[in-house]
Recover the amino acids of this structure.
């Protein structure tokens, strides 16, 4: 992980925000140190997802900067940021096998089959699911071993 710095970060979904109430994300200034553990807490609609989408590059902020180890990444697309987010409710296609679910995003990006096979094997090893790669996701539970 890198040190993540947010400077004067604000976001509005309005094209021309007129005042503070038009901002979904109020001004944020903070540093997340490399190796730290952090949590975003708040009620629904307070800007948690907006902030994470901005940091990961899915959304460009209306104002401010995002820095990774001092490098401005505010205008970089997601694939050039080397960062990811994990959603609370991941999308799992229950009609596909575990292998097919792991390969799906890579296939959609046009990655060659040999690389897909290699990456799926690496990910399965990390997740300790190599023994269930060919099982349908519909038949799995969170504690499958």
């Amino acid at each position: 992980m890198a040190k993540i710095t947010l400077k004067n970060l604000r976001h509005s979904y309005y094209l021309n925000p007129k005042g503070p109430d038009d901002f979904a994300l109020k001004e944020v200034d903070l540093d997340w140190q490399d190796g730290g553990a952090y949590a975003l807490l708040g009620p629904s609609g307070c800007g948690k997802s907006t902030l994470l989408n901005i940091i990961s590059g899915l959304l460009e902020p209306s104002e401010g900067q995002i820095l990774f180890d001092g490098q401005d990444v505010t205008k970089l697309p997601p694939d050039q940021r080397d960062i990811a987010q994990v959603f609370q409710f991941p999308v799992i296609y229950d009609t596909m096998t575990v292998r097919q679910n792991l390969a799906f995003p890579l296939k959609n990006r046009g990655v060659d089959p040999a690389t897909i096979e290699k990456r799926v094997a690496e990910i399965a090893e990390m997740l300790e699911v190599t023994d269930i790669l060919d099982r349908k996701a519909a038949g799995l539970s969170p504690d499958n071993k």
In short: The helical segments are 48-56, 98-108, 113-127. The beta strands are 4-11, 25-32, 63-68, 71-72.
